[in-house]
Design brief:
mainly alpha; ATP-binding; globular; binds adenosine-5'-triphosphate; 90% helix; Helix Hairpins; 4 helices; phospholipid biosynthesis
């Protein structure tokens, strides 16, 4: 049990590190607050909340993995390396795909309620 709590602590510290160091993650957190307040205002259904939460989760998970990849690349390849650059580009691409999906999900749910 103590090991489980310790692992949980390490995972939370990884999230806190990302939130403190990554500007994009801070932007995502602000967007989540705005989406949450708007969702409450327009009275989303349970299914709509579930879709929004899945979309938000997708972006946050992608951002956390992207940050981990960036740190790992900087560790193993501190100098300029074309392949290291590609690895970072692909990880950033994953965040872009996740963000794009969440924008589409948000548009499908919010636009009919706000017009
Ligand atoms: N070691 C490297 N070798 C070659 N190209 C690199 C290297 N590091 C970064 N790059 C290129 O620069 C881009 C930006 O890298 P960087 O590490 O600054 O990511 P970032 O998304 O700006 O990071 P942050 O989220 O910390 O601002 C990468 O996507 C890649 O194209």
């Amino acid at each position: 049990m103590r090991r489980l709590i310790k692992s949980f602590g390490y995972a939370v510290s990884g999230i806190i590190y990302t939130a403190k160091t990554q500007m994009n993650f801070k932007i995502h957190l602000s967007a989540i607050l705005a989406v949450g307040l708007t969702g409450y205002y327009v009275k989303l259904s349970a299914a709509e909340w579930a879709s929004i939460i899945m979309a938000i989760g997708l972006v946050l998970v992608a951002e956390l993995l992207n940050t981990a990849v960036e740190l790992l690349v900087d560790l193993v390849s501190p100098g300029f390396n074309a392949q290291a650059g590609k690895v970072k580009d692909i990880a950033a691409g994953a965040v872009l795909v996740a963000a794009g999906i969440s924008v589409v999900v948000g548009a499908i749910i919010f636009i009919p309620k706000l017009i």
